[in-house]
Amino acid sequence: MAISSETGTPDVELPESPDSGPGPPRQKSLTIGAVCKSLIQEFPEISISKIRYLEDQKLLAPRRTQGGYRLYTQADVQRLRTILRLQRDEFLPLRVIRQELAGGRTDPEVASGDGRPVRRAMVTVRDPGALYSLADVVDDTGADPKLVNELVEFGVIKGEIRSGVRYFDETDREIVRSVNELARYGVGGRNLRVFRTSADRESALLQSILAPALRSRNPERRKEAVEALENLASVTTHLKHLLLIRDLRKIAK
């Protein structure tokens, strides 16, 4: 029998309140541990501490039993899924997500130009997943092999050398996919050095802000720092987007 990470008691479904009254039966509520398990496949970085953090930020408000258990309805789980997708797919900071939810935003789906759902990379250190050869990347993204090699040459992507063959991870592959879209407008690897330089500077800034916590030997503190790093990345990405839109409006006048 599984043990609830919240209370140390068996992670079983709790009975409904006796005052539920007549009418159609309510959907069963879930404990925080069950919610985490239900979302782990779509959001590998989900954790009980992260769900609690979102609750502390007033983004979630699960019902509490007299014994102190958090109980999440299906509506609560759907709201949590929306929050996580907005973080992952649109890089929105929590303040903006709160505004989006207040405006009725639900279950966002972000897609690429060809209609393929986009999965954004996460900051959290984990298994990088599958590795792809140059042929795999070209076949999956439709990019010209010369473009991929150009991105390597200018340091936009790096890959990993194994037995004399360069392989690319999922983030490299998605970078190639994005650049391939820009290539249609004549943008090449040489033009993208400004993005690489900007990313390096932003990474160094965020690292300096959270350096002590990121170096902590306390696993929980380090995990919280990585989650904060992801949120800061969302904030800076949103800021860059706003600054870019402001400047483009001047051009469009």
Describe this structure in words.
- This protein has nine helices and four strands, in the order H-H-E-E-H-H-H-H-E-E-H-H-H.
- The protein has helices at residues 32-39, 48-56, 74-90, 94-102, 134-141, 145-153, 170-183, 193-214, 219-252, and strands spanning 63-64, 70-71, 160-162, 165-167.
- Helix content is 51%, strand content 4%.
- The protein has 253 residues and is mostly helical.
- It is globular.
- It starts with 31 loop residues before the first helix and ends with a helix.
- The protein has a two-stranded antiparallel sheet with strand order 1-2. Strands 3-4 form a two-stranded antiparallel sheet.
- The protein folds into two domains: 26-102, Multidrug-efflux Transporter Regulator, Chain: A, Domain 2 (Orthogonal Bundle); 134-252, Multidrug-efflux Transporter Regulator, Chain: A, Domain 2.
Q: Which CATH class of the largest domain?
A: Mainly Alpha
Q: Indicate the CATH architecture of the largest domain.
A: Orthogonal Bundle
Count of separate DSSP helical elements? 9
Secondary structure class reads mainly alpha
Overall number of structural domains = 2
* Alpha carbon gyration radius: 22 Å
Tell me the strand percentage band: under 5%
How many β-strand runs?
4
Describe the largest sheet: 2 strands, antiparallel
H and E string: HHEEHHHHEEHHH
Shape annotation: globular
Query: What is the end-to-end distance?
Result: 65 Å
What labels would you give this structure?
253 residues; 4 strands; two-stranded antiparallel ribbon; mainly alpha; globular; Multidrug-efflux Transporter Regulator, Chain: A, Domain 2
